[in-house]
Description:
Radius of gyration of chain B: 25 Å
CATH class of the largest domain in chain B: Alpha Beta
Order of helices and strands of chain A: HHHHHHHHHHHHHHH
CATH architecture of chain A: Orthogonal Bundle
Number of domains of chain B: 2
Shape of chain B: elongated
Strand order of the largest sheet of chain B: 6-7-8-3-9-10
CATH class of chain A: Mainly Alpha
Oligomer: heterodimer
Largest sheet of chain B: 6 strands, mixed
CATH architecture of the largest domain in chain B: 3-Layer(aba) Sandwich
Number of strands of chain A: 0
Number of helices of chain A: 15
Strand content of chain A: under 5%
Helix content of chain B: 10-25%
Radius of gyration of chain A: 25 Å
CATH topology of the largest domain in chain B: Rossmann fold
CATH superfamily of chain A: MetI-like
Number of strands of chain B: 21
Amino acid sequence: MKSLHRSGGPRQKSRIPWDLVIPLIPLLLWLFLLLIFPHLRLLMLSLMKRGQKSLAEGGIFLGNYLKPFQDPDHLFIRVFIRTILFSLINTLLTLAVAYPIAFYVAKVVKGMRKFVLLVLIALPYYISELVRVYAWMNILRETGFLNYLLVDVLHVMSQPVEFLYNTASLFVVFVYSSVLLMLMPIYSSLEGLPDEQLQAAQDLGAGPLATFTHIVFPSSLPGVTAGFILVFMMNVGDYLIPNLIGGKNNLWVTEMIYNRFIVSTNWNLGAAYSLVTLVLTTFVVWLGLRLTGQTLRGVFSEQ
Amino acid sequence: MAQEIDVELVHVTKRFGDLTAVNDISFQVPRGSFFSILGPSGCGKTTTLKTIAGFEEPDEGDVYIGGERMNNVPPNHRPVNMVFQQLALFPLMTVFDNVAFGLKMARVPKSERKERVERVLEQVGLKGLGDRKPGQLSGGQQQRVAIARCLVLNPTVLLLDEPLGALDLKLREQMKIQLKQLQHQVGTTFIYITHDQSEALVMSDRVAVMNAGRLLQVGAPDELYTNPQDPFVAAFVGENNDIQGTVTGLHGDHVTLDVGPFQIAAPVHPQMTVGSRFHNFIRPEKMVLLPPDTGRTEPTNQVPGLIQDVIFDGAVARAIVELTGGQQVMVLVTRTSDAPLPVRGEAVRVAWEPRDAHCFPLE
């Protein structure tokens, strides 16, 4: 009888469940130190005038938040809209490139070859994004590999051309660097689709196109949406590619924020620009989900 | 009058690399019958079914459905539909949409579609569940959705790939009866794949027994049971005792088989010569238990043994008897009188008539 009381006694009820809390500590630390704390710090900075020491000292100042909308020529709004638009186009292009690959790897290839393909797809991403962007610059620049190929080897063109610093090169490099982020969630949702369902659809009279639209695409939709959000947010927030590849005509919203922080060394204004961008981008994602009748919960939980 | 044939396989062979999954099989399935293909896992029965459905193309031989040659016709253009082993319902669609899918693919107008789906849902006992998702149904109901999804298309033949395998035992027993009744009701030809001989015997009009890619025997369940043509069929269909021995004497209407510790009489088989080794199968219900000291000379074969165990099952009991020399046999004890059941350790004689046995050469 004594042993019955050992594990469920009333004295234990008020204690902190350490067995649950301890494994959560790394997650809580990560959330707090890398997500919550920096954003709170940004929020505080954005609510202060330049040079102000603390919120207690000079009170709350909202002027920084008006600045983005008061730029000459509505620069911020125009850059923001272009960033969103280009990111959307790029995300669609990435989807068009990634989906067939994801389908091929998930449903067509079997066994060891599948593993090898996945490794090959992921391998370039072991290298830093900076190095990969420089590699592309080497390919695309006036004295680069592509010009060498077209002018000196194939003799298609008589003069080398500068492929860098335009919108097309921006998309090429963007798609290249986003493919994996789009491919993986689609791959995993297609992986979960049993082959029998495709056979059943075919058995019930569906051709390849009908099988795709009625069975394959709907079941990969959570993956597509997840990939879409990931790639879109990464593109909006990218700094390297627009800066190094896009050239002067493709000013990105991140570059504007960078300029506020580093060029004009106005951290308070930079913080406000960052937070405005964050809120507006989140709104765009929310709107996109609403328009396609989806929920975040549906995307990131199973079924 | 010749019966109409819905499905015919003619010398069909299918290989996967070095493995011959289906080895030169031919059979005919009469219209409106419940036809089962029975065999252990890996015997090639699923490959056979997929060859009929069109998911596999035969390397040799021809497949005819409704009299037309179907080789190289893709699955979506064959007048057969398949109930998959794992059912393969579309989880994102409602039950109604699952059943309506095939009609939609065939571009049947919406109003007719609705009418036909509702009729078939009622037929399989799922009336009013059309709005549910498959995940919200029980295993037996999902089963019926999978069948309804096919039947709504009025296929020439319905193919079923071990559809009861995923169900628990009790539900499986219920579904057996329901499937058989459903088949009677709709009159569609069913080709049913199973490794469970009881499923095949209970439901089928005809059963084809397969092993290792070969078709061994096709017949009515009763025929397979009482007159097996192959040692595998004899051992696989129903319970059977196999007492193996060497032929030592040919006596016209019977032979003498030397089992080792004892000799028995056995029926004649055309390939028998003195010295050849043979299976000798006797069904448990064809054997009787006699007291050890009786002077009776009938039935002819009488072998002494000890009761090892008695498995009581209501009207009948199974006695496991160890014969002289150690081989165990099962004897069915029917309780026609109030005579006491044998008890463990009791000495008995196991007796049977040679003509009730079936002999096949031992390989």
